[in-house]
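anyone seen this seq b4? input:
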Amino acid sequence: AIDQLKKIGKQLDVPVFASTTDMKPLKICQDALLAAREQGCDTLLLDTAGRLHLDEELMAELKSIKKGINPSEILLVADAMTGQDAVNIAGSFDKALDLDGVVLTKMDGDARGGAALSIKAVTGKPLKFIGVGEKSTALEPFHPDRMASRILGMGDTLSFIEKAQEAIDQEEAKKLEKKLRKNSFTLEDFKNQMHCVRKMGSIKDILGMLPGINKKQLKGLNISDREFVRIEAIINSMTPEERRSYTIIKGSRKKRIAKGSGTSVQEVSKLLKSYSQSMKMIKKFNKGGMKSLKNMLPF
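predicted toks r here
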């Protein structure tokens, strides 16, 4: 667990207090608090070991930490997939420690809303954050109205916009707009935009935020984030000239690109065809404005 925390801390660029495993938990917390002050940190997270609410010895350990450290906030991290048991756990921990809030993980699973509603009803404490994936970026502030909207299949447009704003640089967006208007959007630009989309999360998570997409529909979609990796590998195997002018990519070039990216000539051709069709649509839109856009829409 210590090595795990060190690795996560390195990824997030935050200091991690390392302790020897034979130290008492309260002593570790006290030393960590002292180290945080010495380093000028304004926030200290104490990540205690997982435990069952039925284990009296470990619960007493938490009480001693609370008394010895006097933390400004105590949050329970619970697993939404445990269903009703998560509610019982939250009730027991709240009784023992007087929680300030709850963090509910695995909210991207099947048990999405039930545990959240029940925990709030039983403890009366707010659900502050939810985990919707395995990456550090998949921890979100909890918004009741947005969660209700997702459960009802109405999407979560606000979260989608917030993620887009975090992932996309405004200056780069303006440059991209100019390139699209001038029909000079290259495969290199396409690759850069894929990077921005991937920062927002998995494709299924992004689609789940859009109105009209419910969970059953998402399960039926055969979407893999590996597709991004495959496309990026193909573009990376191209020369700068090929990325700027895809029309020069013929038979021998396709074979070289396929070999360099670990894909097939058919996959390279498919990407070029999709890109070509997209460019034709962009040119049509630039030429005809809203009228041409209306003609392209399927309704």
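Strands lie at 75-79, 101-105, 127-131, 139-141. The radius of gyration is 25 Å. kinda curious what u guys think
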